Every structure is written in C-alpha cells, then in structure tokens.
Amino acid sequence: LRLLALVDSSLGGTLTRGNGNFVLTKITISAPNPVKIVRAVADYSQAGFPVDSLLKKGQGWGVEGHLRKENRQAVFAFEKPVVAPSITVRLEFNSAYDQHIIGRVQLAFTDVPNPSLGDKAGVPDAVVKALATPESKRDMAQKSAITAHFRSVAPELAATRAEIATLTTRRQQMETNAPQTLVSMSVAPRTMRVLMRGNWLDDSGEIVQPGVPASLPALNVKGRATRLDLARWLTSKDNPLAARVFVNRAWRLVFGQGLVTTLDDFGAQGTHPSHPELLDWLAVEFRESGWDVKHLIRLMVTSSAYRQTSVSDAALRGKDPANKLIARQSRFRLDAELVRDNALAVSGLLVDRVGGPSVKPYQPAGYWAYLNFPTRDWIADKGDNQYRRGIYTYWQRTFPHPSLLAFDAPSREECTVERPRSNTPQQALVLLNDPTYVEAARVLATKAYSAAKDDAGRLNWVYRRVLGRSPREMELRVLLGLLAKHREQYARDEAETKALLSVGDNPPDVSQAVAVAAWTSVTRAMLNLHETINRE
Question: Is residue 381 part of a domain?
Fold first, then answer.
C-alpha cells in the first residue's frame, strides 16, 4: 500500500486544515480479515514521529507539514499477498493535536515485490504526462517512456525482468573481473649503442637498430622495427625455425625424444634431425592449420607410429638402441606432476578443474623452517584443492615441493627446455610414504574391496584400473601372498590399522578396517610399480 498525502489549494497550499502538519497514529487494513503490516518506509519523517512507529504503537507518523509544504508518501508492505475483491483502510489521527489530520489523501496498491519510494513506487511524472497526451499527438520520447514503464511493471514480464537482471549482474561481474592490459603512450626510443668493454657510460660505440641474426631471414620492415614486427617475423611462413622448434618439442612430449634431440639448439652445434622430411611436413601442417596445437597433438597420437607397442626383441634393440628409427614406441617415466596426477586419477581423487590459484598439497612439517625474510608456514589445503593437478602446486623456488623434486622437477630459477629423467631410491620412498600416494592407495583399496566378491577378482580390477591389463599368474600369486601377510598383520595390530587408514583428509571406511588396510598395502605396491609411473 502506498499512502500519498497531497498539498491542495483549498488547504492553503498545505497538507491539513490546521497548521499544515498531520500526525497519523494508527493504520488498519482488512480484506476482510486483518492484514499484517511488516514494513513501513516514508520519504520524510518528523523527529520523534517516525513512520515505523505505526508498527510499534508509538506516537505516530508526522512530517513537519507546517514547515515543509510538500507532498508526502509512505509505503507499507504486507506479510502476505492480499487476494480480495475489496480492501478497507482505516486511518486514525488520535494525537494531542486535533487538527493534525490529512486533508487530501490518495491510496494505491501494487504487486511489485519490495516497492521503493520515489518514481519507482508509482507512475513517473513523465509517464503520467505522456498518458495524458492523446495517442495521436504523442512523440517518440513519450511513446518510449510509456513502453519502458510498462515493461518495468507488467506482471507477465516478471520472469523476463528477472532474467535480464541476472544477466546484467553476470555481465558486470565479468567486466569487473576481466584482465586489463596496461597501455602506455609511445615515446621516442632511446639511442642504443654497442657498449665498449661493457661500459654503459661509454657512448663511443656504434649505434645499432633492432634486428635479427644475419644468418636468418631479414625483418624487411620500413623504419625502426618494433615488437609487433618481431612477432610477425616469428610466425611468418618464411621463418624456418618457429614451427619446426615447436613441432619438435611436441614430438618429444608424445614420443619421449625430439626428432632433433637438442631441443634448445637448432643451430650449428645442435644435432641433425633423424627424420628431416617428417619434421618439415609437420611444421608446414602446423602452420597451415592456423598454429592449431590440438590438431598437431591429435595428428601425432592417432598416427601408426604412436600406436606401436613398446615391446621389442633383442635384434631390433641391437640395430636401433635409441629408437631413432621409430620402429617401436618409446618407454619413459612420466614427469613429476604427471606421476602424482596419475595416482590421483586411478584412485578417483583427481579434481580436473581448469584454472584458479595455486594449491598446497601435503608437505613434510618443518620443510620451510629455514625459509626467512619473512618466515612462512606451509598449511596444506583441504577439500578439492588438495587433489588438483600438480601443475597448480604452489612453488617456492628455494624450497621446491620435495615430492615433485624427487622426480626431477626443476626449481624454476631459470627456464628448462628438457628435464632430466633419473631413477633413484628416493622416488620409491616417495611413492610408498608420501601422504598423497598413501591416501590415493587407501581410496583405491576401498573401491577395489567393493568391486568384486573374491580377492582374485579384486586384484584383477586393480590391475585393470592402474595398468590397463590383467595380472599375470606370477603377479597374482605374489600380490595375493602380500595381501594375506598384511591381513594377518593388521588383524593383530589395531593401532597400526587405524594409523594407516587415517592418512589424508578423505574419510576412511572403518566398517572393514582390517580388509581395507591390507588392500591398501597391495595398492601401495601397485602405485610403486615401474610400469605404473612409466609411459609404455
């Protein structure tokens, strides 16, 4: 309900026949049952006479009409929508001032949720004026005002308005969070000289201009070359390097070594490509596809060369020990981040969400103890962040994550084109004892225990899950023996069982504690296999 108190010439240009002020002490609404008012707001309230006092049995609502000769309005919100053929509104003016009674009042109802004061509570003056104008004489501005107001209040358009409001909010959020590029005004470039003996104070050296090595195609630009010219030169079809270098690194990612084994050196001291025509063809295909990386990777992994087996006989290994002829698939250990990702993936813990801030997986307590200026503490993440891909791990260059460091992850203090691949006892200890791998093994064991009714079936399920094949008879015999041994061990030692199952944040299954603990020993061994951490 909107109550509008209007000034009138018959009232001396004020709101009442008294001194111009009014005090509304009570408002009652019935339809025909009493209607409860839960909120009252007004465009103005006199000190000591607030409009919400009507809800609290206070002194009533006053507006200082004797001082302010203006229209006044109040909006009253009901507890529930009212559906009735008629509504009765009773206004009471029982203050100490007999003549403080509204002289001219107007009431209006709306089904708009949470109506506000001002033009939005009723019909704007511009719309009223437009409606008072005959339709044939309305100009475009008046027609637009009527249409816009109708769209803002029509009940049948409520769903559309809500959708527009939601989309507008999302757009504002996107615009607010969108990355912004810093743009600066171009200034005259500095004069660059050859520094004689490296002395930057000596300006006797030859003046030089931006360019590229003379052994490569020239830039061919008019005037001074810019970074944009360099970018165009790099991706030009006349550039012999950019596409070849990228394709060679992609080949190394897929096949274990590049067609040119020196990934960071295509110069005179680099090795010759083992398949120069293949390298050239891939480079042209990559460039002609619009530098489409997905197309390039798809082309490689669907090739017959990639789909070969890594199993080979002695004769083939003798002829081509380094597999330069690509007569078989290469076998190599996964990179550090992928070793961890693989364990989380086969256990079902991996969260493959893309993007977001860095995360902190489990790390030994006190590992950062010697990190100063300032000192810092490593607090492992909880929930999904604990199981995100290794690429999102928070990186401290002076103290890299020890689990990843064991698998030859670089410190990132400088760019590393190709990581070394070592084979050390520390790697086996990481796979066996790091909380990430213990937790992954426990979750995998819990799933394995529920996957089949007997131990042989469960072991076959684990092999399929981890290695993608069935166990051999000898492997089955060894692991079933390991399972029996640890089942007896954990049946005797409840504390050790509880300690194993409590590793990690993922809630353990305690209903079959001994069985799950024994199977965890088996899955820990499975995650430690050479075959598990190698790309066959």
Answer: no
Phi-psi region of 198 (alpha: psi -120 to 50; beta: other; left: phi over 0): left
∠ CA 292-299-276 to the nearest 5 degrees? 95
How far apart CA 519 and CA 444 sit, in angstroms, is: 9
Rounded CA-CA distance 282/416 in Å is 24
523 exposed, middle or buried (CB, 10 Å; 0-12, 13-18, 19+)?
buried
Give a yes or no: residue 409 inside a domain.
no
67, 9, 77, 95: which is closest to 39 by C-alpha? Answer: 77
pLDDT of residue 150: 86
Model confidence pLDDT, tens digit, residues 42-92? 888 888 888 888 988 778 899 988 888 888 999 999 998 898 889 999 999
What are the backbone angles phi and psi of residue 129, rounded to the nearest 5°?
-65, -40
The average pLDDT across 120-126 equals 62
Q: Could you tell me the CA-to-CA distances from 182 to 128, 167, 179, 185 in Å, in that order?
A: 48, 28, 10, 10
Count: domains in the chain: 3
Rounded-to-integer distance, Cα 376 and Cα 394, Å:
13
Q: Phi, psi (5° rounding) for residue 34?
A: -60, 140
Query: Where in the sequence is the domain holding 58, given as residue range(s)?
Result: 2-122
SS3 23: strand
